[in-house]
Amino acid sequence: MDDVARLLKESWTLVEEDRERLSAHFYARLFLLDPELRKLFPVQMTGQGDRLLEAIITAIHTLGDPESFDEFLRGLGRDHRKYHVDPEHYRTVGVALLDALRSTAGDGWNLEYDQAWRDAYAVIAAKMVAGAAADDNPPFWHAEVLTHERYGPDTAVLTVRALQHPLPWRAGQYVSVEVPRHLPRVWRTYSVANAPNDDNVLEFHVRTPAGAGWVSGALVRRVRPGELLRVAAPMGSMTLDRESERDVLLVAGGVGLAPVKALVEELAAVNRTRWVHVFYGARTEADLYGLDGMRELVAAHPWLSVTPACSEDPDFDGELGDIADVVARYGPWTTHDCYVSGSARMVRATLRVLAEDEVPPARTRYDTFGDL
Ligand SMILES: NC(=O)C1=CN([C@@H]2O[C@H](COP(=O)(O)OP(=O)(O)OC[C@H]3O[C@@H](n4cnc5c(N)ncnc54)[C@H](O)[C@@H]3O)[C@@H](O)[C@H]2O)C=CC1
After folding, report:
1. Where are the domains positioned within the chain?
2. What is the CATH number of domain 248-365?
3. What pLDDT score does 65 carry?
4. Element (H, E) at 228
5. Which of 285, 323, 336, 343 satisfies CB 3.0 to 4.6 Å to 249 for a cystine?
6. Nearest CA-CA partner of 353 in 320, 317, 327, 330
7. Which region holds residue 143: left if phi is over 0, alpha if psi is between -120 and 50, else beta?
8. Are 290 and 257 in contact (CB under 8 A)?
9. Helix, strand and coil in the chain, % to nearest 5
10. What's the gap in Å between 346 CA and the centre of ligand 1?
């Protein structure tokens, strides 16, 4: 797969500046090939192109790591059951994708690239179909909103109860969420902010400024207790290595706290011997919406510490600066299992710090949401 990976990355550079044209071409071709497919997508396609491209980029980036590549695509296949996608649709998507790549890349495209994308797409589709076929769960769960708390104008913490069946997620994973009442057929992913529990209750942390993020906007500003959401299959590999005896570093930026909190909750059930250090960054003190909750966990668990930091609040009585720099100041983290969650820039910066500390990549877990 090494050669294919090189060809994919090389050919991707021909189109990456032109993503809008690529996705416009892709969807135009897709709906021409099979007009019935249009019904599976939201009425308003704004933002939909980014979703497709993010998944492609993530797949390309994980090619060199067969285990993550496999897990990512099987998860994506399970997740796509919510769209009622069947194996035949994958063939049509492959044709539209190749066609869009060829016409967007223009003269730089060649037969080698074409073959590499065909081969890679065949593997991607086969893994997604296999992931979907192996899943006995429903394509999605209906989930009732139980609580909804606002933290300032942009942030909300909500809990929902998955109805029908148990929803089998692992701490650190994320799920797609739809708000059918306000935005039918538009799905966005959110990390689950609590560990699995017998009540089938999931917690989400959502932040979006006014006017941005449709699903997030609805989740922060419109959704009320009693409303029904839909939640699809859990995905992601930022899960706890329970076999490991190493100490743990968890780094969260903003609502990236969600999976970190879930991991701490899971550790609370099993851990006795590992020191666990949480670094939790936000722009201002007011943005540290989850700090009180984390301090409660610290009070209950002697192995846990939390270091909050603010990057744009000189008056904050604690660590100042970007969370990655704060983590660097407390290092080295060479002997730890490390988990990183936040914006792509924050994750990139933190991964650089850990690389400088020579933390082996296999001991660093994070989820690539596309643009790392
Ligand atoms: N599993 C995951 O990785 C999850 C990721 N997220 C992502 O986390 C982000 C959170 O956004 P907000 O709450 O608005 O927080 P934010 O984007 O305001 O982040 C604030 C924190 O990130 C740090 N940061 C920002 N840019 C940085 C840089 N270039 N270098 C180093 N540190 C940097 C700041 O120092 C601060 O600690 C969103 O992009 C969301 O998609 C959210 C949940 C889960």
Report:
1. 2-133, 140-232, 248-365
2. 3.40.50.80
3. 78
4. strand 228-232
5. 336
6. 327
7. beta
8. yes
9. 50, 20, 35
10. 5
Do residues 206 and 221 make contact, with C-beta atoms less than 8 angstroms apart?
no
Mean pLDDT across the chain:
91
What's the CATH number of domain 140-232, 3.40.1440.10, 2.40.30.10, 2.60.120.200, 3.40.50.300? 2.40.30.10
Residues of the chain with pLDDT under 70: 1, 46-50, 368-372
DSSP state of 235: B
CA atoms within 13 A on the CB side of 334: 4
Token code pair at residue 367 = 């989820």
d(CA 350, CA 356): 10
**Dist CA 222 CA 50 (whole Å):** 24
CB of 290 within 6 A of ligand 1: the answer is: no
Mutate to test the pocket of ligand 1, among 158, 260, 346, 348 (most ligand atoms within 8 A of CB): 346
Query: Per-residue pLDDT tens for 263-319?
Result: 999 999 988 899 999 999 999 999 999 999 999 999 999 999 999 999 999 999 999
For 2, the token pair is 């090494």
The domain 2-133 having CATH identifier 1.10.490.10: the answer here is yes
Q: Complex ipTM, two decimals? A: 0.93
How far is Cα 178 from Cα 197, in angstroms, rounded to an integer? 22
CA of 217 to the centre of ligand 1 (A): 17
Is any ligand 1 atom within 6 A of the Cβ of residue 175? no
CB of 253 sitting under 6 A from ligand 1: yes
Euclidean distance between the first and final Cα of the chain, in Å? Answer: 21
Query: Do residues 47 and 214 make contact, with C-beta atoms less than 8 angstroms apart?
Result: yes
